[in-house]
Structure formats: C-alpha cells, structure tokens
Write a structure and sequence with these properties.
2 helices; mainly beta; eight-stranded antiparallel beta sheet; Tachylectin-2, Chain A; Jelly Rolls; 40 strands
Length: 556
C-alpha cells in the first residue's frame, strides 16, 4: 500500500487536533458509502455457501484469474488511466475475496499515463503462475507504451518494473506456461499484413516466450483470423487465454466487441502454435440473444478466464454489465463468477440456450465470510490511519504533494490541475458499486477566489457532476455543476459566512437519477438538486471502457 504522508511538501498542512481550515486546503473528516440495490432483497441468499453475482460489483473489468495449485487464487482487473494500476485480489475458496494490493503501484510501472484519456492506459491484464520457477507473472497493455510483463515470487509484495515486449504488437496479451517448460504469448493484433477486410477484422497471434531471458523468440504466427466463422465477418476477436487440458490445447477468446453483442468462444488443437478449430456450438458464453425485458438482465458477457480447483472442478470469471432503463448503467463492466461445464465432445462452456447469468451462485463446501465483496454493504472511512484504503485511486499518477492524511483528516490542496484535462488533479476516487446508493462526506473549507472543493461523480474528462462549496456571486454556496463540453449549474444553496462544517451527500434510489444535498454544521439536509439524469455518466452515453467513480476533489 502506498503511503500518503508527504512531510516535505505538505509540512505544517495538518497540525494536530483537527485544524481549522486554511486557505487553499479542504479538510475531509470522513467518507461513507452504502449500497441499497433492491435486487439483493428480492433474491436472498439460500445458504452460507451462496454468493451474489457480480462477485466484484462496480467497474472491475477484464478479469483474469490464476492459482498456484496450493489453494491460493489471485484475480486482477483493468484500471486504464487510474493509479495505482491493476488491483490484486486473493482468495482461498473463489468465494471470499480480499484486495491485497495493486500489481502496478509505482510510477515507474505506469509510464505515459499523463498523456492519456481516462479509457487509455492499462488494458486487460492477465495473471499467471509458473510452477517451474514458482513465479507469478502479470502481462498487459499500456496503450501509451506498449505491451509488458511484470513478475514476482511473492504476489503480496512488490512486483518488478516493466519488461517491455516490443515484438508483441496489438493488445490483450496473455501468457501460457506449457508442461514441457516452454512458454507462449497470445494476443489480439491487426488483420494480416495490416489490411482488414472489414471494420473489426482482427487476428489472434502467438509467439514463444523465453522465460529465462524474459523476451520473445521466433516468429509470431496467426492462429485465428477473423474469428469462429469467417464467413459471418466476426468482429474484435480479442482477450485470448491458452490452456492445456488432458493433452489438448484450448484457446478461449472474446468476440463481438465489448457492448451487448459480446461473447466468449473456444477453439481446440493438438499443438500450441497451430491447428485451432472452433467448437461447433460456440459461443460458450453470451447473453446477446435474450429478451431485453428479462428480469435482472446481464449484458456484454464475455472476456472470461478459467481456473481449476485442487478438487478438479472448473470455474470461470468474466465481465458483464447490469443495464437499467434504455440499456444504460453507471457501474461499468463488472466481474462475475460461474461454474464451468464440459460437453460430451470435450469443450468447456458456461451457459447455453436460454440460460441467463444468475444473481445467485452456489459454491458447495464454502462459507461466505462477514465482509463479502458482493451484495449491499456499507463502508465508513474516518481517515484514521496514515494511508488511504486500497479502494481509493487517483488519475494518472500518485498526486504527490496534493493530499495528505493524518489525525483523522484528509487534506486536499486546491490545485490548478483539473479533472477535465489529461492531468493529475487533487482528486481521490473509488468505484460506484451499486445503482441505488448513498455517499457522504463532512468537509471544512473556506473558499477564496475561484477555489472549490467537494464531491465528484466522474466518468471521464467530459462527463462529471461536481457537488462543490465555492463562492457564488462573492458569497459561499453549495453548488451542483454538470461538468462537460458546456458546463452548467443545476442548483445551489447559499451557506452562512460563519459555516464550520458542510456535510455533502450524493444518492440515488434507482440508478436513474441522482440527488445532491448539503447540511450546515450538523443541521438538517438541504437539497441542492434532485432528479438529476444519471444516464449522462453511462457508457451508453459517454462511451469509454470504465464505470463511474465517486470521490473528493479540490481545485482552483
């Protein structure tokens, strides 16, 4: 976990015993978040061995999973241009997950993020364990720097600096360690000779990886061109993973793009570098053909990864979305878990026919702990340590010098860096994980000039809602601003000149609209704006690959 104390740069910023507000500094005493989704009340867990899908709600996209064969499972997901990169989760049973760190927690591992859009940066990490050298590997794409590998023999400790792979072009690389000691990288790349026959025409390529020297060797070969059925012009074959099961090589890929036509498909071969044939009952996972008005729909299902338990059972993780009215949602692509079945002709699959992704999954022999990652939960952060929890992130870098945490107070220094630009602002964020939720903070802040501080709902540089304390016509006020190409004030409440604390809150009852409120010095809440359209932060409206995040922000 990175430390947030910066004694040289912020010396004197946080004297002991709850300091009075200082010019240019916003002091936050707490942050709370509570999920209130009705789907969980409608679907009570039937036993202690049952879990809710998604197992990681909110924007945890492109999951990859591995095991060391000794009962430890590790899972990673994409982070794009957020810092730190690639959250690392650990479990002993596939049910109880705990975040134990980030794979990419140093600026030296995340170069060029300062030049990238929110949906740039780190794409589709893949985590693998090589039993031959007892080493864990994570391979991924930084779209601003290329493909690279990091590794460690202690996944709970620091991971190496990036090992660049200039010969591996394209995106979505994954590693495969064969039982003969050889290793391979498979990934998505352009059409043959860079000449696509149609939009979305891509290939899957393979190259051998030299484990001792951490480099590729030999020729990169195309093993899938276009997709399962080239005659149908399939698009965006990507996210490949390679497995060896009972002497056969299985290549599993996503196909159809990341929207509602997403799917997962499977190929099989007798050799690792050639001869892959698709299963005649593909896809092995999709929801694209189901009725849109079905209960509790999951869409965009795909980008999966498989893992085998010590007992020989197969399970898989994959991403999906939970849309609301008109197909929009603000949570982004989430991580789901399902058991894997096997066909009579020896192919793995998740779902078939009219089967839907279930809200509840049984995992016999396990017991859900007291602090699950799924369902409705409440989080209280009183900033009583010397570092932020692992759920917090910043944009493009660690924001050194812009915030500090000490004596139960988080201090944010108003910065000219803005969340509307490709910069690192004074902004800490966590994922929105429920359609219905409440989030609040208590802040002490005296604005001067153009300074503003408060709570931010953030999708990307052009899609935000900022509930802020600032000067309006020269007087302090709580203001809701819709931030975008044409920013507009949606509501305001004047504040007394002698205000000591302001409680700010953002809530949604259904995921369709937001409610923004403030309270002065512990008095009752005042509504700044309500019925505010939530769809403007959705991927359906804003585009991009992330979900909505929520956090604390100070700017001037």
């Amino acid at each position: 976990m990175r430390r947030l104390l910066i004694p040289l740069m912020l010396a004197g910023l946080l004297p002991a015993c709850r300091p009075a507000p200082q010019e240019g500094v916003a002091l936050f005493e707490c942050f709370s978040y509570e999920g209130k989704d009705a789907v969980y009340a409608r679907n009570p867990l039937p036993g202690s061995d049952a879990v809710y899908n998604p197992i990681l709600p909110g924007w945890y996209s492109d999951p990859s999973i591995c095991t060391n064969g000794e009962g430890d499972y590790f899972l990673v997901t994409s982070t794009f241009s957020y810092f730190p990169g690639v959250p690392l989760f650990h479990s002993r049973d596939l049910v109880n997950w705990k975040q134990v760190g980030h794979v990419l927690d140093r600026p030296s591992q995340l170069v060029n993020l300062d030049r990238q859009h929110t949906s740039g940066g780190i794409f589709a990490p893949d985590i693998q364990y090589n039993p031959k050298n007892r080493t864990y590997y994570m391979i991924t794409t930084n779209v601003g720097a290329g493909n690279f590998v990091v590794k460690t023999q202690d996944p709970f400790g620091p991971w190496s600096d990036p090992i660049l792979l200039p010969q591996v072009q394209g995106i979505d690389p994954s590693l495969f360690f064969d039982d003969d000691g050889k290793a391979y990288i498979v990934n998505n790349d352009d059409a043959p000779d860079g000449k696509p026959e149609y939009d979305g025409h891509r290939t899957i390529r393979i190259v051998e990886y030299d484990v001792e020297n951490d480099c590729t060797i030999g020729e990169r070969k195309i093993i899938v061109d276009k997709g399962v059925d080239p005659s149908r012009k399939p698009i965006w074959i990507e996210g490949p993973h390679l497995y060896k099961i009972e002497g056969k090589y299985y290549l599993m890929c996503a196909e159809g793009g990341t929207s509602d036509q997403h799917s997962e498909v499977i190929f099989r071969s007798d050799a690792p570098t050639e001869g892959y044939q698709p299963w005649n009952r593909n896809p092995i996972l999709t929801q694209r053909h189901l009725a849109a008005d079905r209960p509790d729909p999951v869409t965009c299902a795909g980008h999966a990864d498989l893992v085998r338990t010590p007992e020989g059972e197969w399970w898989g993780v994959f991403l999906g979305c939970r849309p609301l009215k008109a197909g929009f949602e603000n949570l982004g692509r989430e991580t789901f878990l399902l058991p894997v079945r096997w066909s009579e002709d020896g192919f793995p699959f998740f779902l078939e026919g009219e089967e839907t992704v279930p809200v509840v999954v049984r995992h016999p022999g396990t017991t859900v702990g007291k602090v699950p990652t799924f369902g409705n939960f409440k989080v209280e952060d009183s900033f009583d340590g010397d570092a932020l929890g692992m759920e917090w992130m910043t944009l493009r870098g660690p924001a050194d010098g812009l915030y500090d945490i000490r004596d139960g107070v988080l201090a944010l220094r108003c910065s000219p860096a803005r969340a509307t630009r490709f910069e690192t602002p004074a902004l800490i964020l966590r994922r929105l994980q429920h359609h219905a939720f409440t989030a609040s903070t208590r802040m002490r802040f005296t604005p001067v000039g153009d300074e503003a501080a408060g709570m931010l709902l953030y999708k990307d540089e052009r899609h935000q809602y900022f509930l802020k304390v600032c000067l309006q016509d020269g007087r302090p006020a709580a203001v809701l601003e819709k931030v975008g190409m044409d920013s507009v004030v949606l509501g305001s409440v004047p504040l007394p000149e002698n205000t000591r604390t302001v409680d700010l809150s953002i809530a949604s009852d259904d995921g369709l609209t937001f409610r923004f409120q403030c309270a002065v010095d512990g008095a009752g809440p005042l509504t700044v704006a309500e019925g505010v359209d939530a769809s403007s932060l959705s991927t359906a409206m804003a585009g991009g690959f992330t979900g909505t995040t929520i956090g604390l922000y100070a700017v001037r």
